[in-house]
Amino acid sequence: MMTSALSSTSRPAPTGKPIALALGLGLALLAPSTPVSAQAEDSELIYECALVLEFAAKNRMNLSTPASRVMAHYGEVTGNDAQIRQQDAQTIEATWAEYRGQNGRKALDRYKLSVAQDCSDAYDELAQREAAEVEGELNSLGTLSAAALRSFATRTGDFGEVANYLVYYYPYGKNLFQPNEDGDLLGQLVVEAGAAGLRRWSDEAIYAIANKSYWQYNPPATRLVFAEYQRRMRMMRQTESEAQRWAQRAADDRAEQARRADAPYVGSLGTGKPYKPKSGSGVYVCTTYQGTGGGRVCKEE
User: Fold this and answer.
1) Per residue in 209-263, pLDDT tens?
2) Are 217 and 115 members of one domain?
3) How many domains does the structure of the chain reveal?
4) Pair (186, 123) in one structural domain
5) In terms of domains, do 92 and 181 share one?
6) What is the pLDDT of residue 198?
7) How many other CB atoms are there within 10 angstroms of residue 19's CB atom?
8) What's residue 258's pLDDT?
9) 93 exposed, middle or buried (CB, 10 Å; 0-12, 13-18, 19+)?
10) Which residue stretches does the UniProt record annotate as biased composition, category Basic and acidic residues (predicted)?
């Protein structure tokens, strides 16, 4: 395991120069694969992170990692052992007192804020790494798992792109007699997006979801989608039958593209460009995409 710059052998020097947290915190100490026994050796470091992040928050320093998250991690590492916490608190307080006596209160405050920034950066790096791992997960169907899609939605805030992805893979909705985590997730995202958020979703997604079953039971999501569906019909001066025919044609187009492609279409996750089916030419061009959700895509030009 990489050694942290805040280990017991590298505390603030008498020169008064603050020592920042090494990247080892994010790359080794916080790695999910690191044994708990190894993490426990650095419990003091994690506890100091929690303390300095709390100090930074009280001093109006806007950091992305809250002290509560680090304290929860500390509890996991130490098993919430009160004796370990007392020992760590005493060690840190003694170190800070020595530093304050040699360099003054202002220097100690600068040290705490510097370490708080490093701690926050390290935990952010861990979160990004974990998100990348989760967002590559596939389910039994070979598509991105519900956990992967939730991670993408949480990280980017682009709920509509997840909807585009799911209506492509389920052009005619879900099987009404089988549980479906994707459908459950989509219903949750609809409720979280709310009426205002749904206005940014693609016509294809709204029309597909309104005309086919995508979740087993979620009345709030059903009401929100149908209200948005009716709003769009009014804007496009469509009757109910015209809208249903449009939705059916779009679903047939998606199903045909999936049938012709050698590998599943993966949507446009991460590009910010919602999928829009093209029709008319009968010419299909296939492109291979790399990265999260990558694969071979065949589209009609």
Assistant:
1) 998 888 888 999 999 999 999 998 888 787 777 777 877 787 777 777 766 654 4
2) no
3) 2
4) no
5) no
6) 94
7) 16
8) 63
9) exposed
10) 250-262
pLDDT at position 16: 33
Written as one letter, the residue type at 207 is Y
197 shares its domain with 244: yes
Start-to-end Cα distance in the chain? 52
Q: Which domain holds residue 233?
A: 146-259
- The proportion of the chain whose per-residue pLDDT surpasses 90, expressed as a percent, equals 28
Q: Is 236 helix (H, G, I), strand (E, B) or coil?
A: coil
Q: How far apart are CA 121 and CA 125, in angstroms?
A: 6
Alpha-carbon distances, residue 252 vs 39, 203, 204, 213, 256 (angstroms): 53, 15, 12, 16, 6
What's the mean pLDDT when you consider all of the chain? 74
Amino acid at position 254, single letter: R
- How big is the CA angle at 104 (ends 101 and 20), to the nearest 5 degrees? 95
* 3-class SS letters over 26-83: HHHHCCCCCCHHHHHCCHHHHHHHHHHHHHHHHCCCCCCCCHHHHHHHHHHHHCCCHH
Supply 91's token pair.
Answer: 């060690």
Convert the pLDDT of each residue in 128-151 to its tens digit.
Answer: 676 666 556 666 666 788 888 888
Q: Looking at this protein, which amino acid is placed at residue 211?
A: N
Q: How confident is the model at residue 141, as a pLDDT?
A: 64
